[in-house]
Amino acid sequence: MDFANLAAQLNAGTILPEGIVIVTLMGVLIVDLILGRTSSRWIGYLAIAGLLSAVVALYFQWDASNPIGFTGGFNGDDLSIVFRGIVALSAVVTILMSIRYVEQSGTALAEFIAILLTATLGGMFVSGASELVMIFISLETLSISSYLLTGYTKRDPRSNEAALKYLLIGASSTAVFLYGVSLLYGLSGGQTELNAIAHGIATANVGQSLGLVIALVFVIAGIGFKISAAPFHQWTPDVYEGAPTPVIAFLSVGSKAAGFALAIRLLVTVFPLVADEWRFVFTALAVLSMVLGNVVALAQTSMKRMLAYSSIAQAGFVMIGLIAGTDAGYASMIFYLLVYLFMNLCGFTCVILFSLRTGTDQIAEYSGLYQKDPLLTLGLSISLLSLGGIPPLAGFFGKIYLFWAGWQAGLYWLVLLGLVTSVVSIYYYIRVVKMMVVKEPQEMSDVIKNYPEIRWNLPGFRPLQVGLVVTLIATSIAGIFSNPLFTLANNSVANTSMLQTTKVVSTQASVISPEQPEGL
Amino acid sequence: MLSVLILVPIISAIIIGFLPGKAVPASRIRLVALTLSGIVLLWNIFILLKFDITNPGMQFREYLPWNDTLGLSYQLGVDGLSILMLVLNSLLTWIAIYSSNKDIERPRLFYSMILLVSGGVAGAFLAENLLLFFLFYELELIPFYFLISIWGGEKRGYAGMKFLIYTAVSGAFILATFLGMVWLTGSTSFAFDAISTQKLSAGLQLLLLIGIILGFGIKIPLVPFHTWLPDAYVEASAPIAILLGGVLAKLGTYGLLRFGLGMFPQAWHVVAPTLAIWGAVSAIYGAVIAIAQTDIKRMVAYSSIGHMGYVLLASAASTSLALVGAVAQMVSHGIILAILFHLVGVVEAKVGTRELSKLNGLMSPIRGLPLISALLVLSGMASAGIPGLTGFIAEFIVFQASFSVFPLSTLLCVASSGLTAVYFVILLNRTCFGRLANDLAYYPKVLWSEKVPALILASLIIFLGIQPTWLVRWSETTTTAMIAAIPPVEKTVISEVALK
Questions:
Q1: Which of A448, B255, B340, B435 is the most exposed place for a label (fewest CB within 10 A)?
Q2: ipTM confidence
Q3: Is the predicted pLDDT of residue A516 greater than 50, yes or no?
């Protein structure tokens, strides 16, 4: 094997965006070592520049003629590009949020950013990984960094508790996932590459055997943990409450997007023979998540906990697209995750801003905020209403597309449940808006009465403001001017050979098993 | 041309909402809002004058592609069913802004929300695409929630939340039905003309129609789903109640006519008898409950339930004349409810109470509120269906057209019309007549600016009552065409049903 051939097989260019992130990561670490604390003023911007250039690199890889890299270990197709973009962008906004937050907590910013970039790296690799070991390693990179980030404010007992909880549950779910993955390796006769596994399982004629179903369930346990689908959601409320807020902003978007990317790639490629089964399992997860997430969120008093349950519920909505399993279904997932990026990060930016100024994040303390801080009120209202799916905001179009795709695929009951739980969700989202906007001046909470004067020129507030304004504008108009995003989502699905080829396989599979899922 | 009706209010809502405090002082905001809504009203009248009443189809159509993936397009048009609703909407918006308190708290948000609602309602009446309609329909949700729960009465928080949840549920029903309509008929777009439900089986049509009826029935509101209405109407301030009752309720009946009768003509005939009874029950129920009220605003609110029952009866009868009557009833109910709410608002502002037991002798020429009471008498009579006023015309057309189809329900509605007279007589007797209590009656003067909206509406009521052509001519050709499209299928359905 000559060198040129080897280089062609490696096709290292497919991971150029990740390469940029790695270089940035190293840069951040080294600069921190050399300059110490003084670097913290601009090191955040260095990381943002790195991440943005990674996004630009992703743009140039769109529709690459040969997306397979590393002898099948990594697949840089358009689907992965979209998801890598989501992960990178969520890291960008997270850094904008965390510059002030981490400084204020008295910990080192550069270390934080370094761990965050590692998590980003893991998330980006997960999105494109197409080989079992690769998947596992990148998933672990993401997870271990997330544990560290959760416990980053180490003097805060709640942060410690959250980190411990996240670590214990996360490590066990990874172990379960690993067991499922090792079963796959065995069932397929020793293959680790996803397509080869699918082929191996098909030829070994173990399709729909008990072993395959067990492997499926174990894999879903790992994925369900990442996307915090009920009943694998138990870590979410506690971690969201305890962890530093920028971290949960990242976990709720970046880590979740990575989980969904993994779900699409793994389930579609490896498990076409048991497609009915995984659709069934995910239907159950979606029903549980939508009901539990939305109903329990009604009873929350802490903003971060409420957003935690809301993110469980939103995962339920996104799963409708996955269960539909059509082109429109996957595209609607991607579109929803894109707008979810804007609206959730906008919401979290406002939560951070509020807690930076007042030191609390209880919902009741928001009462009367419109008088003291109109921009914050506007941002949080718009993002929450968008999460509730109110037109003409981005979330409305996202939900419509999900429901539309679900209905097209015949998931009537699931869509109806989604509609009903959306109504429920409007109630608890509007509750916060009511606190901020509707309350009279005399009903103002004590915290608001002592609200500090708004100054954007304090160190670290400017990036927060930029992040808030950009995500706010995106949330407001990404629905009305949604055509580019729709085109992006549709093209990324249409250009992904994996989804297109497996459609053929799954129709063959459905010929073998004529029992199509009816309704659900 | 039509986009002006949507975009001007919405854009001005955004501008007013974000206008920096220094540029325009808060006291001027009302003037700005009034001017902008006045422009929209004039433009609307201009469109009304250009409207070709011999054309049964959509006019002034506009089309812009928006989102092909979803089948959503920006497609507008106006026909006889919607033209008067549009005028009503912009008229009542202008009146609501005009009659709002001059030194209202947080004027920016207030006027911006009213204009947003106005633009949204216009959009819903104009939309020729189901999803576009739904978008505008849901756009009311949050502004109205704010309008009720910020500037409302004592229990505004409760009323606002109740309104929000009911409307959100109604939206969920409607969206589910729309998705069903589009997907089951195999259409790729939500545009009205792309959907034909004729080829669906009778059972599916019925199912979808029930979804439509439930969804819009909450908004109209029909009797078991009406419980949000008394709270929302009573807790809302007068201008908001005008918009709620005058405009928003029409969205429900308009939706029922456009999507229920217009898109499911076959299934409509299956449910029509039920709807007729339902309308009659609503009418009787509204009237009887209104009799029992001791709060004048509550009385007016329940009168609204009764009057919307007539619209339902007429829609169920679905003859050409009945539909003309339905549209006429929608318009006249809008005007009458608006003037009633306005007058009740003035009475409450001047006297300080809405209790029937405390109000007395407002007719007294010097110390009372003579002009306001006179107008109250006039509008009470209009609401009760006294000839010479617009309420009579509309109700008479409804009854005349429905009697041949559903005699029993029509008789019940006539009876409820009599009951309407009963509670309005009670209301007028307790408020306008009698003697003023000497120790309480030092009421502030009624300003001219407070009389103007009522005078405009009252002259409209009288004019349309004497010259009813101007009420019915707009919708005649459209409704005739709607009915003409039905008969051939009607027979087949009846034979199908008979076979079963």
A1: B435
A2: 0.91
A3: no
